[in-house]
Amino acid sequence: MSADRFVFKLPPLPWPTNSLEPFLSQAAIDLHYDGHHRGYVEKMNSLAREYPELQNLSLEQIIQRYPGVVYNIAAQIVNHDFFWKCLSPNGGSPTGNTYALIQTQFQSYDNFIREFTDRAVNHFGSGWIWLAFNPSTKFLMIIDGHDAYNPITDGYIPLLVIDVWEHAYYVDYQIRKREYVNNFWKVVNWKYVETIAQERIFGNII
Ligand code: FE
To answer: pTM, whole model, 2 decimals?
Structure first.
C-alpha cells in the first residue's frame, strides 16, 4: 500500500454522532458520515492515485480548477465538512454583525428563515442550499446549489449550508423534507457562521 493512498482524510465530526437528536438520529449521522462522506474521501483518494497532480492540491484548489467528476467528489467532501460545522447541539440565533447584515438585506431575520426554508424545501433533486456573500456586490445571497455545487466556484464566500440530498433526511424524515428543514434551524451553529463572517466579510468591509 503506497503512502499516497491516504492523501485526503475524512475530517472528524465536531460532535458525538448522537448529539443532534432529535434533529438527526445517530443512525442517520452514522450512515451520512461513515457512509457517504467517507465514500467521497475514498473516491478522492482513488482519483489522486489515478491523477497524481491532484495530490499536491487542497480540495479548495481542486474545486476551483477542475470540472466534472473531480470537482464533484472534492466539493462533496468540502460541502459535508462545512455542513457538519454549521450544526451544533447548542444551536441559537445570530447576533452582532451577522444578524444586522441578515436583517438589513432580507428585511428581517424571519423573512430570511422563510426564504431559505422555502428554497431548501422546493429545491428539485440533489443539492445544497447556501447562504453566501458576494464580495463584489457586498450582498448576501441564498443559492440553490445543484448536485455538488460549492459557492467558491463563483468567488462567493460560503456562510451556511444545508444538505438537501435525499440521503441527508430520508432515514429520519422519509418524504417530510419541510420538517427536516424546519428542525435544521434549531441546531444551526451560528457561532461558526459568525466566525467565518467576521474573518472573511467584516474584516474586509470595515
Ligand atoms: Fe450528504
So the answer is: 0.95
